[in-house]
Structure formats: C-alpha cells, structure tokens
Amino acid sequence: MPASYQATVFRPKGDPILNLTNSRGMSRDEQKTLLKHLQHFNDQHLSDPIDNTDKPIAGLLKDLKQRGLLDETLVIWGGEFGRQPTTEYAKGTGRDHNSMGFTMWMAGGGIKGGVSYGETDELGSKAVINPLHVKRMHATILHQMGLAPNSLSYFYNGLDQKLVGVEEVEPIYDIIA
Questions:
Q1: What is the pTM of this model?
Q2: What backbone phi and psi angles, to 5 degrees, belong to 78?
Q3: Pairing of the two strands 159-162 and 153-156
Q4: Contact 150, 162 (CB under 8 A)
C-alpha cells in the first residue's frame, strides 16, 4: 500500500479508501465538505470498536473451543509495535511508534488461559515488569508449533542465520500450559 495511505481509516462499505487529494481548482469549501464526509465515515467505522474486533475474535475463540480445535490452534493477536501514550507533535496530531511497551496476546495451542505476563509503567511508555525481547515471543510460538527455536537456521549472505537471532533464546515458559 502506498505510504500516502498510512494511518488511513478504511470505509466500512464501498471503496475502502476515500481519497481526499484536491483536484486542481478545488476551493476550500469543497475541501471542507469532503473532510466532513470523511469524518462521517470515520465516525461510522469507529463508533463501536467492540463490534469491529472484540466480538468477532471472541466468536472465533468460542467456535474453535466448541469444535475441540482450540487446544491445537494457536491464535496470536498483536501488531508490529505499540503507540506512545502521549502525542509527539507540536499540535498534538499523532502518536509515535513504541517498541518498548505494547500488547500482544495468544490463546489456545497450549498457552495458559487468563494469564497476563508483564506490565508497563503507569503511562504505558515501557515494560517495567517482566520486560522481554520480541524474540522470546517468536521462540514461544516456534516451541508451541513443535519446533526447536534455537536450532532453526537458514543460509543467507554467506552465514547461517537463526530465526530467533544469534544468541540462545528461551520460550516464555510461564505462559505455556
């Protein structure tokens, strides 16, 4: 996806992106009208995030459990990074990436249910209880798939590279059932 669409909220119906690039000769009033329409679409999309994510994922987990598949299916929910808890720009228009404190969760696949591992500081800026590198998450996933995380390697650029890095990495045993 082109960088011009970063952080674009997709529309729930019709074309997923409402492109607001002004055509030549577009007046400010026409632009304002388009922005009001975009706000309307965003309000529709963000009106109840529970309906958009929580209910569908709860339905997936319930369905897997009812069919006896949750024990052998590892469900992973997360992103590549978190967001800073404060705005980073002069006008308060956005939040920067945060690799020091973010949430991911796993269910099924031999992971203990109802366990929370780690906490951030009171602002959510960085992990302060049980901080760990994302490589430990990768090692846990590989371990739960029946693979030896520290033995998996691939040849690249003249060297054997490990999927979890050069140093030995242990899975997060505290969350494994």
A1: 0.65
A2: 175, -170
A3: antiparallel
A4: yes
Q: Is 38 part of any domain?
A: yes
Is there a domain that residue 72 lies in? no
SS3 39: helix
Task: Give tens-digit pLDDT for 136-158.
Answer: 999 999 999 999 999 988 888 89
The residue segments making up the domain with residue 36 are: 19-67
In a domain, 159, yes or no: no
CA–CA separation, 7 and 158 (whole Å) = 38
Average pLDDT, the chain: 81
pLDDT range class, residue 5, cuts 50, 70, 90: very low
Q: Which two tokens stand for residue 20?
A: 């607001």
Please indicate, yes or no, if residue 44 is contained in any of the structural domains: yes
The number of domains in the chain is 1
Residues 6 or more apart whose CB falls under 8 angstroms from that of 98 comprise: 81, 82, 83, 84, 85, 124, 125, 126
Distance of alpha carbon 103 from alpha carbon 163, whole angstroms: 22
How remote is the C-alpha of 81 from its chain's centroid? 7
Residues 6+ apart with CB under 8 A from 89: none
Residue with tokens 């059932």: 177
Three-class secondary structure of residue 159 per DSSP = strand
